[in-house]
Design goal:
Distance between the termini: 83 Å
Structural class: mainly alpha
Order of helices and strands: HHHHHHHHHHHHHHHHHH
Number of strands: 0
CATH class: Mainly Alpha
Number of domains: 1
CATH superfamily: Ammonium transporter AmtB like domains
């Protein structure tokens, strides 16, 4: 009777292979949809932090970059990441096609995995959009997005997530992409900002820094709440399994740590602004949430709650310190993406060994350095080549008038922009 009880108990706690397959596939699909909604968050954040004359252009950029990422990951990106030989440098330049001939061996459907990985690539491209807003021309931006999502991101992601040289030689660990996604987007954004230069009127001739206010802080706040929600899919889905009790517990713990890091990032910025600036900067508080989220992304599973709070709080400190540093360096980052995604991404990656005993500080440093040495120079070369060959920046007249008029042809808010409510159809 005792042996029969043990058999029944084992059957109750060990899921059938097909049940594991179903739950893992559902994790990828549902979390992938949640991450896809982050595209709306980036769009609303950026639309709120740019001036109204550029808001429609931001919307067009964000929906188009998601479409470009989708196509490029299908054409080459996925197999560059996951077609790499163990210890290698990149995968194959071949088109992805679903292969479910042996589904129980992989534990999830091929298409669910492709979809989940694709939305991560689109997230990296969204980071660039906000930094270069209000002065970059659309088609050069789209061309850079295609190169970033099809080649730059996949090559460096293959080094870790595809089992390439960073994973096999150095044990580099980046659970959901503080470096592989966010620092990659941050380095590409920094290169674009340097190639473009600041917006007209941002800096005066005598070194003064002029504040250019966005069109809608409530809209930007909505965007951050959407991103915060999306991050549960971003980090939770990166557990890559939901077919066992331990996986379900892990995803739950990841949710809690992710939420705590974001909350403490906000609180840290609010407190620092209160005591050191006397007035609380809402846009910086919004980036405090993003900075905390980015920081915890490298290792959201192993920290205790207090450690997640500490990691997120330091992310908030980084936002508070590095945002004005960029301003004084005359690097015009419209939405503050570089402090939030690049600097906080580096911090989170280097902090992973504090809670994850399988990660080492040397391995993490090598990964951060390799990512920087690859992504930033190649992005800079691409931006400057496009600048010389096709031009990347709107003219002074176009920039003053607003890209909604010159690139899109219709303002985001015609009732508030002085545009006539009726015009002949073209």
């Amino acid at each position: 009777m005792g042996q029969d009880s043990a058999v029944v108990e084992a059957a109750a706690t060990t899921p059938a292979p097909d049940a594991t397959f179903i739950f893992n596939t559902l994790l990828f699909l549902i979390m992938g949809m949640v991450v896809m909604f982050m595209a709306a968050g980036f769009c609303m954040l950026e639309a709120g932090l740019v001036r109204s004359k550029n808001a429609a252009t931001i919307c067009l950029k964000n929906i188009t970059l998601f479409a470009i990422a989708t196509v490029m990951v299908w054409l080459v990106g996925y197999n560059i990441i996951y077609g790499v030989d163990e210890g290698g440098w990149m995968g194959t330049l071949t088109m992805w096609a679903a292969d479910d001939t042996q589904p129980l061996d992989t534990g999830y459907s091929a298409s669910s995995d492709w979809f989940f990985q694709m939305v991560f690539v689109a997230t990296a491209a969204s980071i660039v959009s906000g930094t270069v807003a209000e002065r970059v021309r659309l088609w050069p931006f789209f061309l850079f997005t295609a190169l970033l999502t099809g080649f730059i991101y996949p090559i460096q992601a293959s080094w870790e997530w595809g089992g390439g040289w960073l994973d096999s030689r150095y044990g580099f660990s980046d659970f959901a992409g503080s470096t592989l996604v966010h620092a990659t987007g941050g380095w590409a954004a920094l290169a674009g900002a340097l190639a473009l230069g600041p917006r007209r009127g941002k800096y005066g001739p005598n070194g003064q820094i002029n504040t250019i206010r966005g069109s809608s802080l409530p809209l930007a706040t909505l965007g951050v709440f959407i991103l915060w929600l999306g991050w549960f899919g971003f980090n939770g889905g990166s557990q890559l399994a939901l077919g066992s009790l331990s996986d379900a517990i892990a995803v739950s713990n990841i949710f809690v740590n992710t939420n705590m890091a974001a909350a403490c990032g906000v609180i840290t910025v609010v407190v620092l602004c209160t005591f050191l600036k006397r007035k609380i900067d809402l846009s910086m508080a919004l980036n405090g949430a993003i900075g905390g989220l980015v920081a915890i992304t490298a290792e959201p599973l192993t920290p205790a709650i207090w450690q997640a709070a500490m990691i997120g709080s330091i992310g908030g400190v980084i936002i508070f310190v590095t945002t004005p540093m960029l301003e004084y360096s005359r690097i015009d980052d419209v939405v503050g993406a570089i402090p939030a995604h690049l600097f906080c991404g580096i911090w989170g990656t280097l902090a992973a060994p504090l809670t994850n005993g399988d990660a080492t500080f040397i391995g993490q440093a090598v990964g951060v350095g390799a990512n920087a040495a690859f992504v930033f120079p190649i992005s800079l070369v691409i931006w400057f080549l496009m600048k010389m060959i096709i031009g990347i920046r709107a003219s002074a007249e176009e920039e003053d008038k607003g890209l909604d008029d010159t690139e899109v042809g219709a303002p985001a808010w015609p009732d508030f922009s002085g545009s006539p409510p009726l015009r002949p159809a073209e």
